[in-house]
Amino acid sequence: MDGVGVTADGFGLRGPRGWAFRDVAVDAEPGSLIAIEGPSGSGRTSLLLALTGRMKAGEGTATVGGARLPKQLTAVRRIAALAHVPGVTDLEPALTVGEHLRERALLQRRFGGSLRDLLRPRAVRTAEAELRIGAALDAAGLDREALPKGSRTAVRDLERVEALRLSVALALVGRPRLLGVDDVDLKLTQAEQAEVWALLGSLAEAGTTVLAVCAEAPEGAVTVTTGADAVPSGERPAGPGDDRRAGPRVEQRPGPQDDRRAGPEDEQRAGPHGGQEAGAAAEAGPDAAPEVRPEKEEESDALTETRRA
């Protein structure tokens, strides 16, 4: 399957509590391995979902295989698939490997094929599904015969890398031109990480464009960085003692009443000790630093809105 080129300029998405990511720039050729690098909570997953057509960005533009984002989300979703994304592509622990593969093949035939495909004889459709499954397993490097119980092995009995390979294989059943994989290095040893990167690199070499979220990008990948270093300086709180997490700042502008000072009525409402606190807060004025919630919540809110939509 031929991959797609991915470009972006000033790409950004803002959630209810601030920017999940902002001012992202990408320029990758078809068949590239693109690593979205950054700490957890820096908008990595939101960027992955936005570039695969699952979230609608609110700033800038991106192009995926000729389809422009955020306007042509449906066109991008037709050529993109996701794997190993928590809350989106979760595997069912109680189901077996074979059950997951058969379910994915049925969904692909029902929603990914044409009406003509549905009208073909059952034997032909079954043979086509087996071919798709076999090709996806080979590309993902998952050998069913090497599993403890073969295709009857439950997902709960798989090793972490085996589960990731299964998730990738399920995504490849649809023969996507763009594959998005989340948290490729989460809770993996150095040897396991190298194994996973080798897998994703082989998929890119075969022609599929791969988007992979990670904490540290491998050599040779097209790297897109999220977090504090990727945010314009005007969005970052100043000061050497700022103990913030990586990610954009939530901007709060002062309201029309922020300049008023505490009066007698305020002291009465605050009680015997609250008057001093209210006066101090009023003296601080509009420059007082607002409470900023961690970006992980911003990213989770944006992802929750996408699922509800």
UniProtKB/TrEMBL annotation:
Composition-biased stretches (Low complexity): 278-289
Pfam families, alphabetized: ABC_tran (PF00005)
Region (Disordered): 224-309
CC annotations in GO: plasma membrane
Organism superkingdom: Bacteria
GO molecular function, one term: transmembrane transporter activity
Alphabetized InterPro entries for the sequence: ABC_transporter-like_ATP-bd (IPR003439), ABC_transpr_LolD-like (IPR015854), P-loop_NTPase (IPR027417)
Regions of compositional bias (Basic and acidic residues) in chain numbering: 241-270
Domain ABC transporter, residue spans: 6-265
SUPFAM superfamilies: P-loop containing nucleoside triphosphate hydrolases
Protein name: ABC transporter domain-containing protein
The species this protein was found in: Streptomyces humidus
